[in-house]
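[Discussion] Sanity-checking designs against the backbone

I'm trying to build intuition for which residues belong where. Below is a structure token string of 326 positions. I'd appreciate it if someone posts a full sequence so I can compare it with mine line by line.
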């Protein structure tokens, strides 16, 4: 029987100084499309345009700013409720190193998903330094519970969680600690969701994620997060892959990174997928011709290889009915 992953052997990052680590964990420095001081602004503009188009082009307007908790940013948007009730549901959690960006900039994957018959739930959450990473994990756990209750109420039998960058960390940490988290820390709208979510959640898509937070502790990224070496490891999905495999033994994972992500970002995703496989999970690692930012911007396009991969994952995960061809 799989158990929680032991602390891994020391990786190359432990031999890096602060300057090297900050270079590796600064995604803006690796884009080939823009200068480092331009790419984030360009991403915000592009994400805003594509998200606005998604909100305008669907047959039925989305439900926006639906509260799933009491925190100020604990709100989500639901797209595709005009689809048949048994349609699968994708939950998407944005990135931004737990301290930037919003759900309002994160609707870019909605149109291709809708055309494939997939309901999309786009999650917002509070940001550091107002709250810590542990609190954000609990917010996203509540959002996942809300989405699973929505799926069950609609008659769906398939939920896939997805997240980009910090969002990839959040969805994998939530699932890995689903059965071990203290129930009083998360206020689910339906108290039975802890149980039936185990049957509903069939897959996970991670996009340029961070699964071991310890390399961030000595960098500028940690200034608003205030992680220690100990808390960073406690909050690392890599540490609890064994628990993930015990809770969801048939879970399928699509672990992705951009070819123009930094070597450390690619190493983290590859290593995480390998550890998942070692623990008996079905994990596929894929690198996409993209950088850390357009890897999600391009999810607005049906022909983008990652979009196709995501929709193919839904086909594999569903027990009934076929996803529409795109």
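Best answer:
Here's mine. Compare freely.
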């Amino acid at each position: 029987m799989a158990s929680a992953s032991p602390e891994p052997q020391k990786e190359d990052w432990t031999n890096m100084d602060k300057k090297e680590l900050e270079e590796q964990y600064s995604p803006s420095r690796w884009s080939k499309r823009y200068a480092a001081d331009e790419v984030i602004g360009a991403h915000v503009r592009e994400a805003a345009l594509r998200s606005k188009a998604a909100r305008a082009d669907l047959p039925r307007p989305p439900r926006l700013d639906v509260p799933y908790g009491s925190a100020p940013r604990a709100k989500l948007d639901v797209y595709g409720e005009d689809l048949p009730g048994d349609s699968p549901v994708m939950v998407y959690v944005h990135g931004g190193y737990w301290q930037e960006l919003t759900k309002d900039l994160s609707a870019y994957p909605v149109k291709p998903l809708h055309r494939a018959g997939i309901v999309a739930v786009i999650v917002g959450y509070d940001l550091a330094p107002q709250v810590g990473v542990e609190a954000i994990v609990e917010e996203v756990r509540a959002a996942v519970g809300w989405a699973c209750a929505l799926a069950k109420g609609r008659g769906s039998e398939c939920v896939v969680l997805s997240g980009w960058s910090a969002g990839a960390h959040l969805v994998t940490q939530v699932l890995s600690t689903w059965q071990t988290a203290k129930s009083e820390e998360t206020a689910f709208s339906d108290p039975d969701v802890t149980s039936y979510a185990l049957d509903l959640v069939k897959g996970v898509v991670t996009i340029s994620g961070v699964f071991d937070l310890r390399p961030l502790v000595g960098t500028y990224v940690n200034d608003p997060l205030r992680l220690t070496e100990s808390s960073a490891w406690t909050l690392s999905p890599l540490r609890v892959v064994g628990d993930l495999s015990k809770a969801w033994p048939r879970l399928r994972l699509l672990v992705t990174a951009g070819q123009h992500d930094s070597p450390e970002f690619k190493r983290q995703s590859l290593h995480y997928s390998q550890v998942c496989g070692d623990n008996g999970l079905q994990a596929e690692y894929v690198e996409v011709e993209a950088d850390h930012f357009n890897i999600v911007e391009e999810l607005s396009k049906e022909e983008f290889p990652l979009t196709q991969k995501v929709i193919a994952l839904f086909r594999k995960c569903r027990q009934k009915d076929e996803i529409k061809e795109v």
